[in-house]
Amino acid sequence: MTVKRDKVTTKTFLQLKAEGEKLALLTAYDWLTARLLDDCGIDGILVGDSANMVFYGQPTTLSITMDQMIYHTRAVAKAATRALVIGDMPFMSYQVDTQEALRNAGRFLKEGGAQAVKLEGGKEIVPTVRRLVEVGIPVMGHIGLLPQSVHRFGGYGVRGKGKEEADYLWESASLLEDAGCFSLVLEKIPTDLAKRMSRELRIPTIGIGAGPFCDGQILVVQDMLGLFEEFKPKFVRRYVELATQVREAFHHYIEDVKKGNFPSSRESY
Ligand code: KIV
Q: Do 86 and 114 touch, CB atoms closer than 8 A?
């Protein structure tokens, strides 16, 4: 079914939260996937740095570059006529200083065609977020499990289980909202903490492994399509097992070619 609505903006995100309508987001890294998502009425498309893992086959998100991210963002933005396109700022593109963060975030909008950027981090990145928002760059925050900090935490475990970390996350959420974030990704945190944040923040929370009470949800598209098979976090729901179907199609094609069954006369000139 094709769902057509007005162009989604950061204002729409706030409006949908106020109206109690959940926001549905997925990632995409290419034109074709983005076009299908846009046709289906997805609210937001994140050009995630997860591309480094699911597109480039790297073990973490860390090594993807600004140029790679801009390349993927441009392809997605070309297709997404309705969905809000958010470019994910890669590791070390915004941490060194605010000037560099401004320049790199600006590239997502000017060269990539995105309408917003996403930054991982808590209260320590608030001055950067404030500056980006001041110059007109909408920012989506991202707290909880931070894949760019995988080496600091020694893995991809649930965050915010203890009181100290829950307090830090809560303070970060509130400061990021005050700094001007238009929404906040909550990754792999306890359901109760995400529920409280969703209730008390004005901006929509977008959960990934943060339970059902968030204002919206996001998944990596290759995970929900069953294409990425390296590992499957508990929070992923596979809506289809595409890897299995694709393998079947590839086997079938190879067999047809080997046996001379493809192409047929109808497929020839
Ligand atoms: O890079 C990514 O895909 C993300 C998630 C929130 C899905 O940051």
A: yes
User: What is the CA(48)–ligand 1 centre distance, in A?
Assistant: 5
The three-state secondary structure class of 248 is helix
Contacts of 117 (CB under 8 A, 6+ apart): 86, 87, 88, 89, 105, 108, 109, 132, 137, 138, 139, 140
The 10s digit of each residue's pLDDT in 155-198 is 999 999 999 999 999 999 999 999 999 999 999 999 999 999 99
Q: End-to-end CA distance of the chain, in Å?
A: 35
- Whose CA is closest to 174, among 160, 159, 184, 187? 184
Place of tokens 């392809």: 75
Closest residue by Cα to residue 236 from 218, 215, 257, 216: 218
Q: Which atom of ligand 1 is nearest to the CA of 118?
A: 8
CATH T-level topology, domain 10-238: TIM Barrel (3.20.20)
Q: Which atom of ligand 1 is nearest to the CA of 27?
A: 3
* 116 Rama sector, left if φ>0, alpha if ψ -120 to 50, beta otherwise: beta
